[in-house]
Amino acid sequence: MNDDILLSARQLSVRFGGVLAVNQVSFDVRQGEVFTLIGPNGAGKTTVFNLISRIYTPTTGEIDYRGPNGVLRLTDQPPHQIAGLGIARTFQNIELFEHATVLHNLLIGRHTHRQSGLWSDLFFGPRTRQAELQARRKAEEVIELLDLQHHRDSLVAGLPYGVRKVVELARALCTEPRLLLLDEPSSGLNVEETEDMAFWIQDIQKELGITVLMVEHDMTLVSRVSDRVLAMNQGEVLASGTPRDVQTHPGVVEAYLGTIDDVSNLRRPEGSAFERSAA
Question: What pairing do the DSSP bridges indicate for beta strands 211-215 and 228-233?
Fold first, then answer.
């Protein structure tokens, strides 16, 4: 694996019974870039995310990842160790502790960095106090980065949906990831909130140096923040390249809009009852 590659997926396939959800998918994610998976619903994008997160195990294929101690076979790692390797994830359906505050949710994201032992935690010894200070310092940095100061002590259950999406992003950042997986970060957001999300993704990439792998449907957001794009349909790769190249690829256009004949069939025939009544 080349030095500039952070994650490399090779010939990934996943079969659920008789359904082939992902079929021979390969791609590389370079360090420091925003790499986006696009495609219609059911294309297999989230399944690929679940393979990287180790929620699923591929039927065939492998994933290599440049971790803190060198390159390793990610598909050989147990799911509970993925966060500790520097991979964090957000979900399309928000997964937060609703009856905890924003700050407490962010502190939970620091659990992979705790180095104090049981007895130190039990008696709140010096090592535990130092770990607590470091965790709060990092959480406050993320709160400031994402403009969450006003919501720091608010219960998540009382927050608007758009703010919850940002809190989930903040909790992921508190793990100090090398690779950040964003599963439809603009889902459910209005235009203004989506613009803010684009701004934060760019800050995460450029200011924090975090590599971002994203699944997204909003093509305006994709075009604005992505360095490279991979288009999928029915579990297979359609095209890859710059956002502009992929969006104008004939196979991608057909997957989203259908063929010219499909679009023509949507037109009302001349002399239809609708047109006669309008006349």
Answer: unpaired
